[in-house]
Specification:
Pathway: Carbohydrate biosynthesis; dTDP-L-rhamnose biosynthesis. The chain has 187 residues and is mainly beta. It contains two helices and 13 strands. The strands form three sheets. The protein has a six-stranded antiparallel sheet with strand order 1-2-10-7-12-5, with no helix packed on it. A five-stranded antiparallel sheet has the order 9-8-11-6-13, with no helix packed on it. The mean pLDDT is 97.
Length: 187
């Protein structure tokens, strides 16, 4: 498996090895040992799956406050999405900066979104299924969002449309108004 750095410290793209033969293919979708060898030691405690029934569905930008912050390891198992991580660690040299990548059932790429980052995605196929691991329990009290089109973040979503959003995501605050309790720690 290839682990590739991005413009944001700690945000990584993981490209699994896919073994094809006359039956189809095989791939490891997660390896604790291989991530640990690469210096990524995570204890995933929950697996999530979502299905979005229409192209242009946007879920995000979401995060959980400390002490319930979550690292997410995201992949797309049907269709394709544009997946985004935003650095929202106070005092970070890349605060408010984003990274985006296409994840698809075909390319099998994964995005590692660390604690202290907001996460969201837009579906770019007729429907899409997303699966992700998290390293902290779901905690509705700590669940927060930032509006998907926040102008200071300026995510370049792949389709210039009014996306399909949840009621909650339609009313999310701006980055400036959002409650954040993550602080950048220099490595
Ligand atoms: C995230 C989550 C939601 N739920 C419930 C709450 C709610 O009734 C229903 C749908 O929740 P939401 O509307 O928050 O689902 P969704 O908008 O898909 O939220 C997800 O978006 C992506 C971008 C993420 O990064 C995830 O961490 C998560 O925030 O599922 C759980 O029971 N456990 C969970 O871990």
């Amino acid at each position: 498996m290839k682990i590739i750095d991005t413009n944001l410290e700690g945000v990584k793209v993981i490209e699994p090895v896919v073994f094809g033969d006359h039956r189809g293919w095989f791939t490891e979708t997660h390896s604790y040992s291989k991530l640990k060898e690469a210096g990524i030691d995570l204890n995933f405690v929950q697996d999530n799956q979502s299905f979005s029934a229409a192209k242009g569905t946007l879920r995000g930008l979401h995060y959980q406050l400390n002490p319930k912050a979550q690292t997410k390891l995201v992949r797309c198992t049907r269709g394709a999405i544009f997946d985004v991580a935003v650095d929202i660690r106070k005092g970070s040299p890349t605060f408010g900066k984003w990274y985006g990548i296409e994840l698809s059932a075909e390319n099998k790429k994964q995005l590692l979104v660390p604690r202290g980052f907001a996460h969201g995605f837009m579906t770019i196929t007729e429907d899409a299924e997303v699966q992700y691991k998290v390293d902290n329990d779901y905690a509705p009290d700590c669940d927060r969002g930032i509006i998907w089109n926040d102008s200071t973040i300026g995510v370049q979503w792949p389709m210039d449309i009014e996306p399909i959003l949840s009621e909650k995501d339609q009313h999310a605050p701006s980055l400036e108004e959002a409650e954040i309790n993550f602080f950048y720690e220099e490595k």
